[in-house]
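Hey L., structure's done. Input below.
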Amino acid sequence: MRENGIPLLRTALVERSAYKAPFRLGGTIYDLKDREANNPAAAVDNAEAFAQEIRDVLIGTRSRNEVKSYA
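Output:
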């Protein structure tokens, strides 16, 4: 993929109970309390890092040299 100029993300969106809880409880991951899901703050941090990286790739603020494969 890298040879074809396709960017690979460095940030993985880890499966977390906090991502499933809003479907059960309503709201978003930002609304979750510690008693409703395991470590919702880590889920927020992970989701924001993933979204920021997607944004950077889409608007081109990351150079192709910065994009690395971790496969």
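The radius of gyration is 15 Å. The chain has two helices and no strands.

-- N.
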